[in-house]
Amino acid sequence: MKYTTKEAREILGVTEASSKYEIEKRYDIIMKKYQMLKTDGKLDEKAKADFEKNTDAYRILMGYEIDEPQEKREPTKTDKIFMKAGIDKKKVDNFFHYYKFHIIIGLVAIVLVALTVKSIVFRVEPDIRLGFIGEINTSEFDILGTKIKEQIPEIKEISFDSANYTNRYADPNEYANVSKIMVLLSASDTNVYLINKFAYDSYANNGVFMPLENIAKDFHIDISKSNYLKTRVVEEWEDPKLDQKERKVIKYRDAEPVLYGIDVSDSKFFEGMNIVGPEKILVIRTGTEDLDLILKLVKLFVT
């Protein structure tokens, strides 16, 4: 060992009472000064020698070098590799000690990026996307997904989109949820929804849902319990005044009320499941073209 413990403390500028944390802190300062000189191109031979001296002192005080003489050992394969490359292994050890947290964080970041890329590359596209608007209970989604896949073998993967929307209690995130609903209904790939009555009353007359009377006839679905959902889509609204609570209709698109949703609240399929609140109204987004799986889902939900 080059120095005694007392000499090492004097070199590093610490006292006998200094803790290992204080010694680490002191060496950190020395390391930073050394790195600055190196970066600025001002590193001379004296600065190099001083840094090596401080490094030796630091290693002694931290217990990396012990007082007792050590038996001479043959260089390991790793030592030989460093020697052949002209690299000071002691400096490398110190570098990794000082920057270990930076290295760990960097490795974690690389792993996260790799996992993200993997999830994108190997992501399985869902066979169907099901949306929920109402008093959402996401804990039921897994149960619902399993039941659907059991009943419709063609559906291997299902994705769920949801937005909370209710008038039964105050929702602190109401504005954010309304914005999400607008995105779901206008810009997402989700075409079939289960919604509550409040959501149906809010959006059905805006023309976002497909008329379902013909589908109901084709599948012999009893819509007698859904007649209360018949409504007319508004083609033109009057510009609201500042003190006006409700918008006034100028022109309807539908001459007569049309069925845009089917009430499936009493469906046996949903027994024991509370997904969107007290009511479950099935709707299909207007403009939907590929109806094969969706119609199978409709048939399943109305049973």
From TrEMBL:
InterPro entries named among the record's database cross-references: J_dom_sf
Entry's Gene Ontology BP terms: DNA replication
Origin: domain of life: Bacteria
Keywords from the UniProt entry: DNA replication
Protein's UniProt name: J domain-containing protein
